[in-house]
Amino acid sequence: MVKVEKITKTFESRRKKVVAVDSLSFSAEPKSIYGLLGPNGAGKTTTLRIISTLLKPDSGKTSVMGFDCVIRPTEVRKRIGFLTSDMKLSGNLTPKELLRFYGELSQMRDTDISKRTKELSDYLDMNDFLDKRIGKLSTGMKQKAAIAVSLIHDPEVIIFDEPTNGLDILTARTVTDFLKDYRDQGKTIIISTHIMSVAEKLCNRVGIIFKGRLVEDDTLEGLYEKFGEDNLEDVFFRIADREGVIEIV
Question: Among 192, 84, 106, 89, which residue's Cα sits nearest to residue 152?
Answer without folding.
Answer: 106
